[in-house]
Amino acid sequence: MCQNAFVPYKATLIPGDGIGPEVADAAVHALKATGVEIEWERAELSADIIMASGESLPLHVVDSMRRTKVGLKGPVTTPVAGGYQSVNVALRKTLDLYANVRPVRMLPGLKTRYQDTPIDMVIFRENTEDLYAGLEHEVVPDVVTSLKIITRRASARIARYAFDYSRANGRKRVTAVHKANIMKLGDGLFLKCCREVAREYPEIQYKELIVDNASMQLVMHPEQFDVLLMPNLYGDIVSDLAAGLVGGLGIVPGANIGEEAAVFEAVHGSAPDIAGRGIANPTALMLSAVMMLIHLGETDAAARLRAAIEKTYAEGKALTRDAGGTASTEEFTAAVVANL
Ligand code: NAI
Asked: 283 — phi, psi (to 5°)?
């Protein structure tokens, strides 16, 4: 997709709410400093806008994404137990962004409980179905069913995406995570699809782990994992667990990829506890921007931005509080830009 330096890329910027606008500003600033020209279509999306419009996914966001095909997105708040449906889930489903890709890696110099453990894994989470189909029903008062949808189509394509990625990126082992001992049909179908796809990639080792054991193994021996492949709900939970191993939600990026469009966003949410204080860590969204640059074919700029972020961590002078420093979002961003 890499294009002539004089023609800017078009992309949609969805700053989101909570800490979203703060980290989005930082990521845009860092992207600009790489020299890659991006013409942003800014699409505002927040809890307030959703409440006012009455739509769980306002049209202007979808329209912009359909035009640009590439988005950089901050988090958007979703009310708990009631209120409107998750706009994040709605966006992924509407644009059919079926592959949620979350690389979990140590940053140089960052002090964590696992700082001496070489953690470098990529989580592939199916992004369109499972319990996130949002099909819930109160059968009679005080009895509710939530439908867990698993299809061959969605399971096979996320499996293929994970194996293709592994092949292209020299990854050695894919571990499918499931609970097919209990959900024999639903997770059973997911596993069946993973096994079928795995057979087409004989050079890549294929393993399976039940999700409870996988969670324990991740805490005890995270270095054993290379690529993790899972349905939506386990992928969501395990991503945050894995983020905790490498220094927290402030540093883990992500991508939502579909056939037509891709939206790059951090694993973290809107962090209402620190929103508006200028202390959020923008690393996760900056690293999501690195993934976006790779998607655009700007691999050189991507490598430079990643190197600048890593250098900032290795120096350790301008880290945000969650990473053990005292720097503000702006100070961290200035350090990254200086290192570029
Ligand atoms: P959260 O990820 O917003 O925050 C969890 C903890 O991590 C908080 O203590 C927060 O301060 C910290 N944290 C998160 N990102 C950080 C950063 N960049 N720098 C420093 N510290 C950071 O999870 P929570 O509180 O469960 O969810 C808040 C809201 O975000 C909810 O409405 C939830 O639905 C929404 N959410 C949205 C997502 C999205 O838009 N993709 C993803 C996850 C949650």
From this structure: -55, -45
